[in-house]
Amino acid sequence: MLVGMVEELHPQCSAKGCRASAAWQLLWNNPKLHTPEYRKTWLACDEHRLSLGAFLEARSFLKEVTPFVSSEDAGVS
Questions:
Q1: 18 burial class (0-12, 13-18, 19+ CB within 10 angstroms)?
Q2: Tens digit of pLDDT for each residue in 22-63?
Q3: What pTM does this model have?
Q4: Which end of the chain has fewer CB atoms < 10 Å from its terminal CB, N or C?
Q5: Where are the domains of the chain?
Q6: Is the CB of residue 21 less than 8 Å from the CB of residue 12?
Q7: Helix, strand, coil shares of the chain as percentages rounded to 5?
Q8: Strand segments (E) across 2-76
Q9: Measured between alpha carbons, how far is 24 from 27 in angstroms, rounded to an integer?
C-alpha cells in the first residue's frame, strides 16, 4: 500500500500485456450493439497500432485512427 505517495498513471496501449505509452487512439463501434455515432476507444503504441487496427477492421468495427495527444482529448469508453 502506498501511503503519502501518489502514483501517476499514464495512458497505456490496449494490447494484451503491453505497458507502452499510448501514441494512437483507435475509434470503433460494434454495429450490432452500438448506434452508428457511438465510439469506443482503444489506445495503441506504435508497435501495436496495426495489429489492433487489423483486429477491428476484420470485424468491420474500426471507424478512425488518430494520434493520441492526451487523456483530456480522448473519448471515454
A1: middle
A2: 999 999 999 999 999 999 999 999 999 999 999 999 999 999
A3: 0.80
A4: N
A5: 24-67
A6: yes
A7: 15, 25, 65
A8: 24-28, 40-44, 62-67
A9: 10
13 touches 51 (CB < 8 A): no
DSSP state of 57: H
Grid cell for residue 47: 508497435
Q: In 10 A of CB 56, how many CB atoms?
A: 19
CA dist 15 and 29 (Å) reads 17
| Grid coordinates given for 7 | 502514483
By C-alpha distance, which of 57, 52, 59 is closest to 24? 52
Amino acid found at 43: L
CB 65 within 8 A of CB 24: yes
Residue 77 vs residues 1, 3, 6, 41, 44: alpha-carbon distances, Å: 28, 30, 25, 6, 15
